[in-house]
Amino acid sequence: MRSLSHLRRAVARFMTRIIDRLARSAQARGDYRRSERLFQRALKLAEDSLAPGHIELAAELNNLGVLYKELGRFDEAESVYRRAIALLLASRSDNSVEAATLYHNLGGLEHARGRYALGEPHARRGLEIRERLLGPEHPNVAADVAALAAILDGQGKRDEAEGLIRRSLAVFERVYGPEHYEVAINLNNLAALRQGKGDDREAEQFYRRALAIKEKLLGADHPDVAMTLNNLAVLGKAQARYAEAEPLYQRALAIFETALGQSHPKTVACGENYRALLREMSSGNEPPPNNAACNRSISTSKEQRLEVFTMCSAKLSRQRGRRP
User: Model-level pTM?
Assistant: First the structure.
């Protein structure tokens, strides 16, 4: 009987991993309904077959939290993240790479909420743990560096943020090459910083390079593509290049509505941006100056650069020290 029970648990763990992989694939394609169903199924299998403090249970909670955050369901994301953290604390794994990942994601969640000061301690804690365990040149450490930069930028600490972004971008390009998704994210973020400092020419170059990489890797209709389209449109509008900005907003809004629905924060933000452009075009007014008050924050600005820093939420890996 004992061997039969062990076999059943092993089969359940195997099925959990298969379903989790299918869920991640659906999420990467933008099929969020299917992804949620699969993640919930994987979590139920893990809960039924694993010990309460098992690392794979924390992994499934984290991965579901990543999806909820991407869907704008922030309270649900926080709930499963904190449940996962509690499991790690109970198993004395609070100084592990898994804990670093969860702190990274909690920081990213507060960034998405616009609560940057609340996110900073989480981001710093995640970076401190992972850098101590893996060293400063590891790409997962670079992801933590980029996450901290996002939160610092949200608090107006642009010089420190830019230095961190350039550090993480150098690591990603060296490790992954020039056309990796992490490179695209950091190019988008660096573009946002350069635009905030008034360097529109360099900002546009970074945005267009990020867009080309995303379209190649994700396809033309992915929400991450729409985010950079929106950012390019914001830049074009600030320069009174209305004829260029309008189709970028139209394309971004169509992608967001299809992939995320009309009530998602990114859809709402992009729609507000587009309507503001149409009002400005019809009135013939000069565009507002391209500065932080006009273009940075979703919470304080009419002209919104969607999640100026794309917080790339980390998945917990079964293989310690790595993220897929």
Answer: 0.76
**Tokens 């019809």 -> residue:** 282
Which residue is associated with the tokens 């609070």?
A: 94
Q: Which helix (H) or strand (E) holds 172?
A: helix 158-176
Name residue 31's amino acid: D
Task: Look at residue 28 in the predicted model and tell me its pLDDT.
Answer: 86
Burial class (CB in 10 A: 0-12, 13-18, 19+), 193: buried
First and final C-alpha spacing in the chain: 36
User: Does the pLDDT at position 237 exceed 90?
Assistant: yes
Q: How far apart are CA 37 and CA 43, in angstroms?
A: 10
Find tokens 């249970």 and name the residue: 57
List phi, psi (to 5°) of 161.
-65, -45
Burial grade of 300 (CB within 10 A; 0-12, 13-18, 19 or more): exposed
Structure confidence at residue 289 (pLDDT): 47
The CA–CA distances, whole Å, from 70 to 36, 82, 200, 245, 254 equal 11, 17, 28, 25, 18
- pLDDT tier at 88, thresholds 50, 70, 90: confident
- 13: enclosing H helix or E strand: helix 2-29
Q: To the nearest 10°, report the CA torsion of 68, 71, 72, 74.
A: 0
Write down all domains in the chain, each with its CATH number in brackets: 1-94 (1.25.40.10)
Residue 130: CB atoms within 10 Å: 27
DSSP 185-249: HHHHHHHHHHHHTT-HHHHHHHHHHHHHHHHHHH-TT-HHHHHHHHHHHHHHHHTT-HHHHHHHH
How many whole angstroms separate alpha carbon 112 and alpha carbon 195? 20
Q: How far apart are CA 74 and CA 34, in angstroms?
A: 19
* Angstrom distance (rounded) from CA 311 to CA 148: 9
